[in-house]
Structure prediction request, 653 residues.
Amino acid sequence: MTISLLAYLLIPLFSAVLIQFTSRYKKNLADIIANITLFAGFLNISHLIFNTAKTAKFSLPPMAQDTFTLLMIFMIYMVALAVSSFSSGFLTEEKNRHHFHSLILVSVSAMCGIVTAGDFFTLYIFVEALAITSLALIAFDKSKKGLKGAIKYFFLNFSGSLFILLAMAILLFTIGTFSFAGIQHLTDPAYGGHWPFQVVAAIILLLSGFLIKSGIFPFHIQTVAAKQGAYSPVSAFMAGTVTKIAGVYAVIKIAIIFNFFDLKLHEISETLMLIGAISILFGAAFAMRQKDFKKMLAYSSISQTGYIILAAGLATPLALLGAIFHIFNHASFKTILFLNEAGLKKNLNTSDMEKMGGLARSMPWTSWSFVIAFMSAAGLPPLSGFWSKFIIIIALWQGGAKGYAMMAIGASVLTLIHFIILQRKVFFGKISAIAKNAQEMPLPMLAPIIVLCIVILVSGILFPYFYACLIETGIKAIL
Amino acid sequence: MTYHLALFILIIILALAAVMAKNMLFSALILSLVSVGVSLILFTFASPWAAVFELSVCAGLITALFISVINLMPKEKKLLNESRLKFTLLPVVLLIMAVISWIYIVPFFEYLSKHPHLSIHNYPLGQIIWKDRVFDLIGQICIFAAGVFAIKSLFARSINEQKSHKSQVTGHKF
Prediction:
């Protein structure tokens, strides 16, 4: 049996429409359709990722089909399934649940479009589709904070789009194409020479646009406000996949396509590394100062994204491999952390860490899943986060960026410290007044968190096997 | 040349009418005609790619979104109450912009025309839509679905209110 990647894009889109017609009066049907669609897609891509030969030969002209794409589709489905099944328990009283699931499914469709796009124009179209669904998801709870977050997200995100549009126009005028394969052909050593000034300007504009969309320092205002204001499962979805696919994925793709590794664009590459390094430190430092659980996680997300941008700037094959793995690992541990926060908020009706305490006794599963996720975020062995950070640090050291490598290790220690402080404040110590009546999350909400913990543990312990398998199936071919 | 000139003048008149109109629905429809005019110009300038997207996104998708949002608004808000007189200044602003463009934009386009661009291939429209850019069409369907669901979720409350109002009037349960 051969499977076309187009199915991962079209089936959720079809299900999103189906939900609107079938679930108007029976809201549970929306949960069922969304979860079945995502679960089927997740199972399918889990099988396909290790059997790339089974990918269909049928695809549309500007479509990419490589292991990087498959890994990203796997990640998108994994996070979307976790968020969707968690929301089935979280949004029990929400009347417009069917709209929520439709928006999640269209987002999945748009993200699959982004990772399968074969040129910047197609990528841009799907990025805009994702921006619209994200905007609606952030403002979904109709709270003042949510609407404020959505407005900030709108203004920064669409200014990023303007940069991308301008860059595409310049590329079309100067080199006559914006297809990835066409540009890669031009970067071929045989073609030689340095890029003309206009192309360099286009690359800067493209990177600026996608960095704005990734919500990294100094464009973090939109992501922090959006994640803080939105429903907590939406924050998990945003932090886990949306900002990574709409922004960070494209930055890595640009580093690969324009071949930052050959040092012809070393000024851009060094600036990108600097932005990544500042983001790591800025995110980690600001996360330590927060009293609001969600805000702390949002800043921590900036720090983790910094690692990916730092590696993308270095752009050696090993660094890019580390960046790709870190996107995946970040998606798994950050989704757990945000979903845990969602469970706590539903239970305690607050996300103020000062008011929490001693929750480990009443919510042991939540507490221990949090420990696994933060240990992975801090890069402790043998969890999956350790391997991606380890690869990035080794790549930085090998690439001569020893200062950045030391800084990355230092920031990891900072991450560990601020998560230990959080764990002590929230889950251990004296039982606070509001924590006395707290209860463990129900199974539909807990199940996706436990599954993601298993993913972190298994992909960490068996990492050498997965690494060899993914290298064999062709991840090297794209670097 | 006469055809182009007529088209340009028509577009400017339609654009002004869209700004001056008090009825929002009328304004949205006129704006879609502006997009149709722009896409006709793009076609005649041998830029079918841009023309196709102008026609489908601006004249099609954006108009559909505008109309659905206007449809969700209460009747009294569909008409703009403030005076539109201040917009009579627009032709003067347009004239100034035209003079500035003549001085700066024309040399810029002459500079750009030295670079290679895709319009030189001049593929037939059918090939562009159904062979080369079919994946983009799926992207546009995605944008359309995203827009419709975003409006439905953001305005869910007013839709429910409209339904309950209708049920009160007709005595039917929705």
